[in-house]
Amino acid sequence: MTFSVAERATRSGSLPRAAALQPVQQVDAGVNLLNMANSGEVQLQAFLRSYPTRTYRKGEIIIFQGEAPRTAFIVKRGVVKTYNLSASGDEKPVAFYTSLESFPLSWVFGKLPSAIYYHEAFTEEVEVYLVPPHEFVEFIRSHPEAMYDELLKFVTDHVGKSMRLNALQHSRAGDKLVYTLHYLALSHGKKVGPRVIEIGLQLTHQDFANLTGLTRETAATELNKLKRLGIISYGKHTPYRIKLDKLNAMLNDQYIADLEIKL
């Protein structure tokens, strides 16, 4: 019979039993935090029911760069794309906002006088709640569960942006795309089969080019290479599907390849 390090230490008397049981306590704490986040989401949904909504069509600008919005926006359905434009007019995506995510938070929380990026409807239809910023902030401050849920969104957003930065720092076009696909699989993917992830964003070759800083032609060439290798599959009207094990084998960092978190 084999024992863990904690069990062996407990049996030898060098570690108190309470310390040996710490992993179980950590699991219980994790469950409590998850329940707290779920409760916060329920509270937010109840809070939003009394506010009006507005619907935008794909490609319609919700907030212009430099604009001081009149309200905070919280996504009810659809996907919102946030991006900047380079001096030459090239689009540089920053983030994608989905259900119950709010924007532009730097303005909502009074850190900036206006939005620093464009916010655009990315799916065929996007519906957003319109909430006065001071009312949204007061709701967050007075509801600990909702505050924790919002904090969780900040943390996952930070992890996601770190992964995107890591992807962009690679010099080879193929590596940029592989690491970007890994980020998208974790942040916007859903499991559709054993170790198969479907990206929940309707992305074109041009979108991948914008995400990675490559030309559309280079992005298309590298994506087709991955398709021939059986790592990804996609079609004109079908979403990108990723075979996670094959994709992970392409990553040069084993720690990053082993990530299984849902951002």
Structure description:
This protein is an alpha+beta fold and 263 residues long. The chain has helices spanning 5-12, 17-20, 22-48, 105-108, 133-142, 144-168, 173-188, 205-212, 216-228, 244-250, 254-257, and strands spanning 53-57, 61-63, 72-77, 80-85, 91-97, 102-103, 118-121, 125-131, 189-193, 196-199, 232-235, 238-243. A four-stranded antiparallel sheet has the order 1-8-3-6. Strands 2-7-4-5 form a four-stranded antiparallel sheet. A hairpin with a 2-residue loop joins strand 11 (232-235) and strand 12. Helix 8 packs across helix 9 (216-228). It starts with a helix and ends in a 6-residue tail after the last helix.
Q: How would you describe this structure in keywords?
A:
alpha+beta; single chain; four-stranded antiparallel sheet; disordered N terminus
In short:
The chain is of the alpha+beta class and 263 residues long. The chain has helices at residues 5-12, 17-20, 22-48, 105-108, 133-142, 144-168, 173-188, 205-212, 216-228, 244-250, 254-257; strands spanning 53-57, 61-63, 72-77, 80-85, 91-97, 102-103, 118-121, 125-131, 189-193, 196-199, 232-235, 238-243. The protein contains eleven helices and twelve strands.
Q: From the alpha carbons, calculate the radius of gyration and give it in angstroms.
A: 22 Å
Structural class: alpha+beta
Number of strands: 12
Gross morphology is globular
What's the helical proportion of residues? 40-55%
Main sheet summary: 4 strands, antiparallel
Order of helices and strands: HHHEEEEEEHEEHHHEEHHEEHH
Distance between the termini: 38 Å
- Share of β-strand residues: 15-25%
Note poorly predicted spans.
1-25
Whole-number average pLDDT?
Answer: 85
Q: Give the helix tally.
A: 11
Strand order in space, largest sheet:
1-8-3-6
